Amino acid sequence: MGIHSVTNAAIHLQNAARARLGLTSIPNTKYNLRLALAMHRAGLLASVTRGGPRPPPPEAVLSGDDGEEVTSANVATRRIWVGLKYWNNEPVIKNVKPISKPSRLVTASLGDLQKVTRGFKSGMVQGLTLGESLFVSTDRGVLEAREAVEKKVGGLVLCRVS
Amino acid sequence: MSAARPAAGRLLSGACLAVRPKAAAATATAATTLPTGATTSPHAAVASACYSPSSSSPCLGRVLARPFHSSPHLSARRRPRFANVRASDMGLMDDKQIDDFTKDKFPKYTPEELAHLRTLYSPEQMAALEAGEAAINPRDLTVQGRLRTDPYRMPYIDDFAETQPVIDKRARNKAPPDPHARFMDLDQFARDLIDWADKLPKGEVTGNLKRLQDFVPEAYRARPETQWPAEVRDEARAKFQRYMEGEVAKQQKALNAKGSDALSDLGGGPTDADILQYILERSVMTDANRQTDSSMAPALPNKVPGVAGLYKTVIDPEDQGKDDLGIYQDVKRRTGMTVREILNLRDKQLLVRFVSNQTRLGKVRSCSVIHIVGNGDGWLGYGEAKGTETQLAFRKARINALLNLRPIRRYENRTIYGSITSKISATIVKMEARPPGFGLRVPYRIFEMCRAAGIHDLSASMPRARNPMNSIKAAYWALCNQPDPEEIAMARGKKLVDARKVYYGGAVY
User: Fold this and answer.
1) Contacts of B150 by beta carbon, 8 Å cutoff, 6+ apart
2) What would the pLDDT profile of B266-305 be if each residue is shown by its tens digit?
3) What is the CATH number of domain A96-161?
């Protein structure tokens, strides 16, 4: 499975946050959805909603469901609408740094992730500092590095968010 | 002789005889107005009256220098071309000649002169003046008066009749300023203005005079001047000219007859000179226009709001004598710190640069200083100042740093939170928190800042430019803008826990 889509989505979130957008959309893929949900679990996103080419209405954003079934007829026009968070006039997502890219996939074993989450460098991955999150694609889904350590899995390192 | 004064000129022309101050006083009384330069101070007058020739032996003209050879001095060998002629042989020493000269050159004061001197001097000074006059026989001045040529003579010749601005102190004959004088309020000012106007001549001179129209026949009087026939106009102008000349002569005559005070009787309003004098010389204080010698402006009143207390350095007993110059009074007021606290702060001058502003008049050099101040316990101030005086720039920078004191967030009171990167221009400063006991492994300017702020464990690096000024600024920015875990937790809606504190059961700070 290629990661270009998820890499682009991650970078798009950084751009949208820096542009101070409230709501933005990324392509509707399973990988993007998993990353968005992982970021939502980490508190980096306000909402994740699957919708059409137009922004979903506010109540749909709040509930996370616009009430429209995904069918083979409309799946191509579906997008994932994510709400961005701001605090004290600053975006919560300030920096997004993709680590794996289509030309070089970076993986981290459990041991690597354990070191990285303690703040030490391991292989290609620098240690996490205050307020940083690392998203890893594992066979248990896309997880935050600390979740992955908790679940004792390693995987493909997607991006680092702070 | 180069400093010879006019009075000295008279002295020299008076056959090398001393002159008493009478001559100067006489000229002063003769003039209707007394020039300020000719006012003699009482001391000068007495001194000059006491000026008497001491050495009767004329100077031989020897040069008082040690010869460097054994041959006699040139002046000793001098042979006059003519034999000396004694004064007595010339008939200058007989009693009649001496008396005539004495009467001519050293007359006694006339009663008018004495009356004028009494207006200038107090009775005590007049008594001293008269005693000085009585002490010296005018005949002695004639017979024995000599110009001093000894090495201890005055460097200039003077009878002290006139003040010489470079050498003499200015005569201060006027009364001191009135200490109770206050600035006039509106009523006082109006009264003063009316008083001044009352002394001016009444009426309008020009209003009483005839006009050109009065010199033409009745028929033309109503018409404008341009419509008069040429011969009528010329005649009227000639008559008017004659009339005006006559009026001017009449007024001049009246002026001469009555003296200078007569102006007020003639009629007419204030002249330009009067108004200028009013503007320039009339006092704005309630001192009845008293003239003084002091050029000091009256002090600003203390009770005016906005001025009160500004121009007096009040030494605060709370300072325990630590700030008698009042340098830190403003800082004290604005920061709420005591002077003792201010002086106990750790401060360091981090950077001194000599900079110059190139103007068309040349380079204007000044000193640019960056100063930091900290209490060693989480507060750090950054001050930047520039001044042509180095010491003043130092002081300004320090005071700016004091006013700029800010809290620096410290993790466990020893290091920073997380890692920070800041960039000013090409200078990037990267700072990282470090474990206890790591120490300050940082560039020396950042070391001083950490020490002042009370940070003990830190590593910092400057991967790119290491410009001193920018590195200080970037480091200060980084220390002031550390990430706040509480803020991050609130922003993400998460609970963040410091694992170190959990692990050690909170036994770390």
Assistant:
1) B55, B59
2) 556 788 888 998 998 888 888 888 888 877 766 666 666 7
3) 3.30.1490.10
